[in-house]
């Protein structure tokens, strides 16, 4: 019998055997992505002055929308950049 470390497990071994669990995870990811899209589109509806008050620009929001799941780091970096200016 061969022993393996937890980091050496294959991806197939890490996938859930229960299809219901996999489906529930897929639903949760889809809901999170939709929530993210709705929040970013709501930011796009704000005028320039309100976005400036938040420390971001319309271009930052568009870049965050294009990045998909990595929107928060883009907006946080933009706010930090504008806070220094």
Give an account of the 3D structure:
By secondary structure, the chain is mainly α. The chain has helices at 11-14, 19-44, 48-54, 58-67, 71-84. Helix 2 packs antiparallel against helix 4 and helix 4 (58-67) packs antiparallel against helix 5 (71-84). The mean pLDDT is 84.
Tally of extended strands? 0
**What profile does the largest beta sheet have?**
none
- Gyration radius, to the nearest Å? 19 Å
Number of helices: 5
Q: Which of globular, elongated, flat, extended, rod-shaped describes the shape?
A: elongated
Uncertain parts: none
Helix content: over 70%
Q: Give the helices and strands as they follow along the chain.
A: HHHHH
Give the overall average pLDDT.
84
N- and C-termini, Cα separation: 61 Å
Estimate what percentage of residues fall within beta strands. Answer: under 5%
Going by helix content, strand content and strand pairing, the class is mainly alpha
Draw up the topology in text.
Layout: H1 11-14, H2 19-44, H3 48-54, H4 58-67, H5 71-84
Structure in a nutshell:
With 85 residues, the chain is mostly helical. The chain has helices at 11-14, 19-44, 48-54, 58-67, 71-84.
